[in-house]
Amino acid sequence: MKELGRYLGLLFCCLILGFRVGAVPRVILDTDIDSDVDDVGALAMMLNLHAQGTIDLRGIIVTSDDTYAALCTQAICTFYGYPDLAIGVNDRQQRMRKHSRYTRQIALEFPHAATAWTDFEEAFTLYRRLLRESPDSSVTILTIGHLSSLCDLLRSSADDSSPLTGLQLVEQKVAQWICMGGRFPEGKEANFYRPDPESTLYCLDYWPGRVVFSGWEIGREVRSGGEYIRKRLDKSHPVWRAYELYNRFAGRASWDQTAVLMLTDRATDFFGLHDSGRCVVAPDGSNRWAEGEKSGHAYLVFREGADRKACARWIDWLIAGKRKALRRIGSADTIR
């Protein structure tokens, strides 16, 4: 019965996220890795899941105005053994600056190939290339930052690499968008309103498929990145260093990590979906949920009795790469 329950959980997770049973989803991560350390935890989870074959991480979009953000990202990927993982930057940021508690130090202390953020490919160009190279309906886009780069993709025109517009590429290639953003049923959250709420409005107005929102209220109840990470990772690890620099392992809300958890079969242990209606965004970036018929929008809710501490424990295990936490979507096998 336990294995049957696990299989049904896997099947449900595949269905709600648009994955084919048995398929390894191609994933593009879009992150604003700079102001908060939850992006580092989320990136570690993604790289560990990629290493175990749970996901196929095709590339990383760095939507940040921090000059060291992309270099930090490449340093972490290099440490994990993926020095050539495609990374794109949003070079349309109005002003690049140095403001992170950890990106500069990680970039300086750990090896990587690039020498400046200008060495990386333009974000929407990388988006277009990765989508063009993917089979139809095979890509999950996971955004854990603001939506400027995704908006640029949707607005992009046909070019020499593809006769399709950005919107057409998304329609053809993307199976699912998982978005850490918004507050539900209503409120104001940074990824939606900072720095350009216009991008949020555009993405939600024109997105042609399904989107699942992991709202601020979900991550705030799940605290990870504390003593377990301090004790489990070596001091020579860039993730250990990032958490030390950020708040010395005091723990942090798991906004971005709960969105990543949706790529695993553990999601159904903790979350359900509210999908009757749609997310409506105001010009200032605040949002509310408008009840009504199903629209393709959905947001995460905690299941009744869901154990927030257990959820945090799984996230910490995934950050640290604990093997029993790494399970494959579409398979009833447990990696021990």
Provide a concise account of the structure shown.
The chain contains 15 helices and 14 strands. It has 336 residues and is α/β, with parallel strands linked by helices.
Structure characterization notes:
With 336 residues, the protein is of the alpha/beta class. It has a single domain, classed as Inosine-uridine Nucleoside N-ribohydrolase, Chain A, CATH 3.90.245. It is built from 15 helices and 14 strands. Strands 4-3-2-1-5-6-8-14-11 form a nine-stranded mixed sheet, sandwiched between helices. It has a three-stranded antiparallel sheet with strand order 7-13-12. The chain has a two-stranded antiparallel ribbon with strand order 9-10. It is globular. The protein starts with a helix and ends in a 16-residue tail after the last helix. The N terminus and C terminus are likely disordered.
Please give the alpha-carbon distance between the first and last residues.
Answer: 20 Å
Query: What's the CATH topology label?
Result: Inosine-uridine Nucleoside N-ribohydrolase, Chain A
Enumerate the spans where pLDDT stays under 50 for 5 or more consecutive residues: 1-8, 328-336
- Helix/strand order: HEHEHEHEHEHHEEHHEHEHHEHHEEEEH
The fourth-level CATH homologous superfamily is Ribonucleoside hydrolase-like
Net shape: globular
Largest sheet strand order:
4-3-2-1-5-6-8-14-11
Number of strands: 14
Classified by CATH, the class is Alpha Beta
Classify the oligomer. Answer: single chain
Q: What does the radius of gyration come to?
A: 18 Å
What is the number of independent domains? 1
Q: Strand fraction band?
A: 15-25%
Count up the helices: 15
- In round numbers, the mean pLDDT is 90
Helix residue percentage: 25-40%
CATH structural architecture: Alpha-Beta Complex
Could you give a short account of the major beta sheet? 9 strands, mixed
